[in-house]
Amino acid sequence: MKKWFSFILTLALLASLPACGQPKAAGPLQVLVDIEFAGGFSNVDASPLCDNLLFNLSLMEGAPQDVEFQYLPQEGEEREAALAHVRTEILSGKGPDLFLCSTEYPTSDAQSLFRFPEQAMGRRIFLPLDPYIEKARFMEWDKLVPAVMEAGRSEAGQELLPLAFTLPVTCYRQSQVQHQPSQSMTYAEMEQGGPALFAASIPPEANSFTALSSYFTTLADWQAEELTFTEEELLAWLLKARQKWESYYSWDKETGLQKAGDAPPFFQFGLQVGYLEDLSAMTTQYENDPFDGIDTGKEPLAFVPFYSRDGGYVATVTCFGAVNRNSARPEDAFFLLDYLLSAEGQRSSFTGRFTQACAWPVYQGICSQELPGPGRYYTLDENIAALGTLLDNLAGARFASTLDKEIWNLDVALSQNDYAKSQGEPFQPPEKLAEEAYRTMKMMVAES
C-alpha cells in the first residue's frame, strides 16, 4: 500500500522568469490530490498524471514555479489516519493550498475527505472564487454545464468547482425513440409515458452509480440537518425498484438476460467517458451483447434521463477542486483550477483518471470529433448534440456523498436478504434493514 507521501517538482522552464513585484511565496504550493480511492480504476497511481499536469503547466507563462503534490492512501487504517490528520490540519487553519478530490463512490469502502461537500461549504473551509473566475485566463465559464457548476455555489459565492459529474441514462436509437428531456416530468409520469419511458424507469440491476438515489431530487436539508425522505419512503422505493426489475427481466441460460414488454432495443449506464469505447470496439468482448444490438459507433442515440419523484432529473458531481481559505497562495492555487476547467484541461490525462470509469467532463462539447475527450475518445456529433440538450435541461446537481453510498448499501443488503430467504437461510425483515440504514443516515447528517 502506498503511504502518504509528497514530492516537489520545480518547473525548470519557468525558473528564469522575472519575479519583480511578486510577493514572497510562503513555501511550495501544496496540492492535495485524492482521486485514487474512487471509481472503476482504484489502485491506479495518480503521480504520473500529476507529472503530466505539471509539464503542461510548465509551458504556460505565469504558472506556479514550485508545486508539492500530496496523496492520501487508498484504503485501510493508513487512509483513516491520513484523513484524520488532514481534517485536523484544516480545522486548525492549515492544510494544503488546493484540494482536488473525488467524492464518495458507492462501491468503495474508503471514505472521501469531504463526506458532505455542501455542508463543508458552510464552514469557511474554502475560498470564494468569484473574483478569480472573473479574471480567469483559461476556463470559459459559459462553456461549463451551468446546473453542475451551480452545485458548488454558496451564499458566499462559488466555493467548489466541479470537475466531473454523472447521471443515469437509458439509450435508444434516435430512429426509434424521440424524447425531449423535461425539467418537470416526475417519475410517476415517466412510468405512464409508454413502453420506452417505462423501461427507462427501471433502475439497472447493478445500480448505475447513483440511479437509485437519483429518485430523490435532494437527499438532505443541510440547514435543518434533516433527510428529505422518510424511512418508509426509502424502503418503499427500493422494494418497488427491485420488484419492477424482477418483473421486467428474466434470465435464459442460453441467450442471457431477456426483457419483457415492447420497448425498442435499449441499454442503460451512468454517463461516463469510457462508454465511448465500451459501446463500440468492445461490444464483441462480451458473451452477450450488453447494448441490445445497437451499433453505437454508427447509430445516433436518444438519451432518456432517470426522472425524480419530485420532477426533473439531477446530475451527481464526482470530482471537484477548491482553494483552502487559509492559503497564502490563492492565485497560484486557482491557476491550476483555471487550467483544469479549460477545454485542454478537461481533455487531459489527469481529467481522464476520474472520468473514464464513472463520470463526464463539465466542459460542454468535449468528446466530439472536434474536441476528443480524455484518451482521445469521441462520439457522433448527433450524440454530442443530444447530450447537450440533456444537460441544458437538468433540474439541478448535487455532490455524491455518504448518503448515496448508504442507499446503495441498503439495496445490496435487501438483495442479499432476499437470496438468503430463497435458500432457506436466516434473513431479516426488510423493515429492520431499512431502520438501521435510515438511523445511520440521520446520524451522518446530524453530525456532518
Query: Are there runs of 5+ residues with pLDDT below 50, and where?
Result: 1-25, 281-286
What number is the mean pLDDT?
Answer: 87
Query: What kind of sheet is the major sheet?
Result: 8 strands, mixed
Proportion of residues in extended strands: 15-25%
Number of strands: 17
**Based on the structure, what is the oligomeric state of the protein chains?**
single chain
Strand pairing plus helix content: what structural class?
Answer: alpha+beta
Output the number of helix runs.
Answer: 14
The radius of gyration over CA amounts to: 22 Å
Shape: globular
Range of helix content: 25-40%
Distance between the termini: 29 Å
Description of the molecule:
Strands 1, 2, 3, 4, 7, 15, 16 and 17 form an 8-stranded mixed β-sheet that branches. The chain has a 3-stranded antiparallel β-sheet with strand order 13-8-14. It has helices spanning 47-58, 76-91, 117-120, 130-134, 146-150, 187-191, 195-200, 231-248, 275-278, 330-340, 349-353, 381-392, 402-422, 430-447; strands spanning 5-10, 29-34, 66-71, 98-102, 153-154, 157-158, 161-166, 168-173, 220-221, 226-227, 249-252, 256-259, 267-270, 301-305, 314-323, 360-361, 396-399. Residues 1-25 and 281-286 have low confidence and may be disordered. Strand 5 and strand 6 form a beta hairpin. The longest helix is centred in the last third of the chain and has 21 residues, at 402-422. With 448 residues, the protein is of the alpha+beta class. 32% of the residues lie in helices and 17% in strands. The protein starts with a strand and ends with a helix.
